[in-house]
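Milestone 3.1: sequence recovery, worked example.
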């Protein structure tokens, strides 16, 4: 999943590296601001069942994987300094869209939600693995509440990382 792509349009393109072939499903806007995308390796890209471009900050693709269906989201939250309304609009669209996904499908979210969930679980033991970094902020609380309300978990908090991989 890619965020802040700054592409000016929506589309699908083929990308070839030295040994691999990929299909890129993208979602942008006229101003070359924001933008999200999802890379899928061939031949798995042939299993894409549907694509939904919600807005320039949110999209998903649906894949058939043997006996199951997986919906993969790419999400990009407004940065610090953006209006509260803009942030609320993204979260509302996210909530509305997730609620349309059947419970039988697996959901994977690749995102940049501009929040810090912190290193402490503080009551979110069922969704936070205890290996975050630093202090939780307001956006981090929102991420944890969203995660908990949908029965998800924050996978990156379940693995201990070296300090230089946590700080950018």
């Amino acid at each position: 999943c890619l965020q802040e792509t700054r592409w000016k349009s929506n589309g699908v393109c083929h990308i070839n590296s030295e040994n691999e072939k990929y299909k890129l499903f993208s979602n942008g806007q006229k101003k070359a601001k924001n933008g999200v995308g999802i890379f899928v390796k061939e031949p798995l890209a042939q299993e894409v069942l549907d694509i939904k471009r919600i807005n320039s900050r949110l999209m998903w693709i649906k894949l058939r994987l043997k006996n199951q269906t997986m919906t993969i989201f790419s999400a990009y939250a407004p940065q610090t300094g953006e209006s509260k309304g803009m942030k609320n609009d993204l979260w509302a669209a996210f909530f509305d869209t997730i609620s349309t996904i059947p419970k039988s499908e697996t959901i994977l979210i690749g995102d940049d939600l501009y929040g810090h969930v912190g290193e402490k679980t503080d009551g979110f033991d069922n969704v936070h693995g205890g290996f975050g970094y630093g202090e939780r902020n307001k956006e981090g609380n929102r991420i944890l509440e969203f995660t908990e309300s949908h029965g998800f978990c924050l996978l990156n908090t379940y693995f201990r990382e070296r300090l230089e991989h946590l700080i950018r």
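The first strand starts at residue 2 and ends at 3. The first helix runs from residue 84 to 98.
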